[in-house]
Amino acid sequence: MSAISWRAVPVWGLILALSTGSASAQAQRVVTLDDALELSGVAIETDTPATNPRLVGPRAESEAAAALVDQARLRPNPEVSFEVENLAGSGAFSGLQATEYTLSVGQRLELGGKRSARVGAAEAQAELAALRADLTTVELGQLVRERYLRAAAAAARVELAQDVVARNEELARIAGVLVEVGREPPLRALRADAALAEARAHLVEAEAESLSARIALAALWAGSEAPFVPADFPDILPPASLMAGAADSLTYRVARAESTAAAAEIERQRSLRIPDPTVSAGVRRFGESGDNAFLVGVSIPLPFRDRNQGNVAAAEARLRAANAREAVALADYEQTVATARARYLGAEARVETLSRTSLPQAEEALRLVSIGYRNGRFPLIEVLAAAEARDTIREALIAAREQRGLAAAELIGLAAQ
């Protein structure tokens, strides 16, 4: 028995280290779900500048797309040209006597609805970028809820492991007393010590998983320290109705905006098939006579080879792809909602059964067996079996509460508009 205790010393030291770290984190900061949503930037107003890199990027993309709308509204700039002819030649064109100076101004005229098509395409891209930024915020909120639930479940498993260690310590103490007085064989004490060592090792594992879950949560807002998450599961309730709003869901609106942007891009590419003439007007001065003359000109590109047909075909293909994604998003929405709702209702039923029926019965059975064991009426194996049954139910209850929260978080994300 002394050998088993000696081997458990390093494990117990690690347990103390992890427990000390958890206590330190608890003293520093206890984070609720609302705190986590605020730290990640999900709960703040849209007009408030974001500091979370996960939100800064999409919102900057939206601002860039809005700036491109203003750029698309601008008309082409005029062009000024200045030419000097018959300069420093030979014979009659030597020197500056026969020099001609030409100053002209040209303006490219956009035909075929290029400007309106360009503005329409830019506005469609801006709407798409804004919706994608909103979708990023919604997805981040869902991810925060999911990781917070996992951290809370990990904390609950730590508490469960601590209770198991405390119970096995008491059982090992009782087994040692019963062996000393000759009411139990030495094998019972060895069995109790082995169960205690296993419980301590499981506590170390639970502490490590809890730390990993808290680090993953803090990573959502680039936090430098893992926050302390209590073992209490937050109340996350799904929206009352979802099926009627399939076409208004944010995910589908993004897919529909992609189709709209693709259609607008086709119009822009088609407008580029029509060449734009450049009209110019100027004045020419003849150095030899000192006379002036006005000039008027028009230049038109000849679209013999390049009629932008490749870009038009590519834009049409992108529209077909966007329409397909839109149809898939609409078809998948109701199925995803139904699946998440079924998972939520199933987990809620498990939580109700385990918390109100199974766990109280297991607790009572363990209590009675423990009393009988202390009085020498039941062997140690009966106590361990009853304790294992109770712990299994507690673990199942933690998993059910975690799954219920995850399903509710998914339903909240699906209901976002």
Automatic annotation (TrEMBL):
InterPro entries: MdtP/NodT-like, OMP_efflux. Residues 1-27 form the signal peptide. Keywords: Coiled coil, Signal. GO terms for molecular function: efflux transmembrane transporter activity. Residues 305-350 form a coiled coil. Belongs to the outer membrane factor (OMF) (TC 1.B.17) family. This is TolC family protein. It comes from Aurantiacibacter rhizosphaerae.
